[in-house]
Design brief:
Length: 287
């Protein structure tokens, strides 16, 4: 082996040893759902379920941090048989454990009136969360299609811009989000905006994120961010990545998420989560 290759090999092995040592200090795994644990389908693969359940034997907590509402997270909590799980929902706007709401932050939908009116003009689907239930602002071609395909879809209830205080708003489109760019730019600093490629956008209160949601967990559980492993795939995971002891992006993650992570798995989505959990479990001593 030439000197250059030898140096690369030595440096890589040192970096691997440092990461393995750091894994021994992990007390909590915080994991995104869509795009990370789930890419297609609504239930977790059995191999991943087994590894998540094994974490308990090593006194390691498993926490969901997702843009989803509780109603769409609950089936996964049941599948894991962890009804008392700590959950960060709606990208940090709602934090709960079991049946107890720990934190909830709403914002006035009046802020989004111009944006929603513009989205309406392009027949984009606008969904929103009110009282833990998701509604569709108006019927669109896409919502009609989904209603036909699924046999059901969110109930139609027009937004009341004068009075409503919401947890989150989603605008869904088929590769046309760029049409809203100007209005979205006007909202920067007023709300927290997460883009999902050119297909959609999620909006919550300006002061919340997955990272602020995990702040509540750390205070309640007396945990340090340095003992957290965060796993994700998108821009809304980056603030949490930067705060956590170990940040892991799955192979199908966005370029920005990968750049912010310390580890990028070789496999995508649930397979990638299973891969990193196996590595984590291999470093642990039964407690």
């Amino acid at each position: 082996m030439n000197k250059k290759l030898l140096l690369i090999s030595v440096n890589w092995n040192k970096e691997l040893c440092v990461k393995m040592e750091k894994m021994k200090t992990i007390k909590t795994v915080v994991c995104d759902i869509d795009g990370t644990l789930l890419e297609k389908g609504e239930m977790l693969p059995s191999k991943v379920v087994t590894r998540i359940k094994l974490l308990k034997e090593y006194k390691i907590d498993f926490v969901f941090a997702s843009g989803r509402l509780p109603s769409r997270i609950h089936p996964l909590v049941v599948q894991l048989q962890q009804e008392d799980m700590f959950v960060v929902a709606c990208n940090g706007a709602l934090v709960y454990q079991g049946d107890t709401i720990i934190f909830e932050h709403v914002f006035p939908v009046k802020l989004l009136e111009s944006l929603v009116r513009l989205a309406d003009s392009f027949d984009m689907t606008v969904l929103y969360s009110l009282g833990g239930v998701e509604y569709c602002h108006r019927e669109t071609a896409a919502s009609k299609r989904k209603r036909r395909e699924r046999g059901d879809y969110f109930a139609i209830q027009p937004l009341d811009f004068a009075t409503m205080q919401l947890i989150k708003v989603n605008i869904l489109t088929e590769n046309a989000l760029y049409l809203l760019d100007e209005e979205l730019q006007k909202l920067e600093g007023l709300v927290n905006i997460t883009r999902y490629g050119n297909q959609g956008v999620e909006i919550v209160h300006k002061d919340v994120s997955k990272k602020t949601g995990i702040d509540h967990y750390c205070r309640l559980k007396k945990r340090e961010f340095s003992t957290i492993m965060a796993i994700g795939d998108n821009e809304n995971d980056i603030a949490l990545f930067k705060a956590s002891g170990i940040a892991v992006a799955v192979a199908n993650a966005s370029s920005d998420a990968k750049r912010s992570a310390q580890i990028v798995t070789s496999l995508s989505s649930a397979d990638g989560v299973g891969e990193i959990l196996a590595q984590l479990l291999d470093t642990q001593e039964r407690k």
